[in-house]
Amino acid sequence: MKKIIWILQAALFYICTLFIAALPRFLTVRIGRNIGTFLFNILHSRREIAIDNIRQALPFMKRHPAWAGTYETAEEIALATFIHLGISIVEVFRLYHGKGAELISSMTVHGLEFFQRAVAKDTGVICVSGHCGNWELISLSFKQHLGVNVWAIARMQNNPYLNTIVEKMRMGYGNQVIYSKSALRPILGVLKNKGVIGMLADQAVFEDNGAHIEFLGRKAWANKAPVIIAHKTGVPLVPVFGYRENDRHVLTVHPEYVLCGDRSEAGILQDTQALSRYLEEYICAHPADWYWVHRRWKRAGEPV
C-alpha cells in the first residue's frame, strides 16, 4: 500500500510540474502567491509553528541593525513566507522541465570576487548557506554565475519515486547530490578533488553534531560540521545567501570566513556561532525569505 501511495504522490507531483511549466512565465508569481496563500490557510500546524517562531524572534530582529522594518507582526511575516514558498514551488516546477534559464540569467550577483578568491586557493570550497529564498534555484545558478558546479548536501526524500524526480532536476543543471546520511566521506572526496560543496546548515541538529549557540535571541543547536570539515581540510568557508527582490533573485557572496584557529570545543563553538551571525543578519534583512516552518530551537532548552 505504501508503494502505491508513493507512486501516486510522485505522479501527482509530476503532473503538476507539467501543468505549471506549460504556462507563460508571467503567470508564475500570481500562481505562486495563490498557492502560498492556500498553504498558509490549510497547513494549520506549520502556520502556527512559523508564527510562534517569528513571534519569539521578532523583538531581537527589530533591535538588529539589519532589520528591514517592512513588517510589524509575526502573522504578516508568516503569510509572506508562505507566499514566497508558493512562488518558489512554481519556479522549481519550471526548473524541472528545463525552463529555468530565464530565472537564472536574470539574477543579480553581489560579491563574485569573494568566491573567485576562494576558488583561486585551489583547495576546494565549502559554501555555507541556509533555507533562504529559493535555495534550489540558488544552488542551480552556480554554474552560470560562479563558473562551477556544486555538490549539494541534501536529505533523501522518504518517497523514493519523488526523490528520483527531485534528483533529476538537480543534476539536470550540472550539480551533484550527496545525501546527508553518511555524507562525510563523499564530502572529503569532493574537497580532495578541489570541488565545491554547498551546505544548508540552518536546521536543528542533535547535541552530538551541534554547538549550543545563541540564534535570534534564543539558544539553539547549530550544525558544527562546516567548521570541523574546514579545520580538517583547510578549505575556505564562504557564506552564500539568496533572496527574492520583486520578480528576480539576488545571490550574495560574503568574504571567506576565517576560522579562529582554536580546534577545541570552545573554538568550534566560537566559529559556529560566528557563522550563524551571517544567517541572523540575513533573516533580519529579509525576514520573509527564511524557512520559518521548522522547529529550529528544539532540544536546546527553549520553548518550541
Write the layout of secondary structure elements.
Blueprint: H1 2-22, H2 28-42, H3 44-63, H4 74-96, H5 101-105, E1 108-110, H6 112-120, E2 125-129, H7 135-140, H8 142-146, E3 151-154, H9 160-172, E4 176-179, H10 184-192, E5 196-200, E6 210-215, E7 218-223, H11 225-233, E8 237-245, E9 248-253, H12 265-285
Would you summarize the structure shown here?
It contains 12 helices and 9 strands.
Write up this protein:
The protein has 304 residues and is an alpha/beta fold. The protein has one domain (2-289). Helix content is 51%, strand content 16%. It has 12 helices and 9 strands. The chain has helices at 2-22, 28-42, 44-63, 74-96, 101-105, 112-120, 135-140, 142-146, 160-172, 184-192, 225-233, 265-285; strands at residues 108-110, 125-129, 151-154, 176-179, 196-200, 210-215, 218-223, 237-245, 248-253. It has a 7-stranded mixed β-sheet with strand order 1-9-8-2-5-3-4, with helices on both faces. Strands 6-7 form a two-stranded antiparallel ribbon. β8 and β9 form a beta hairpin. α1 runs parallel beside α9, α2 packs across α4 and α3 (44-63) crosses α4. The longest helix is centred in the first third of the chain and has 23 residues, at 74-96. The model has no long low-confidence stretch (mean pLDDT 92).
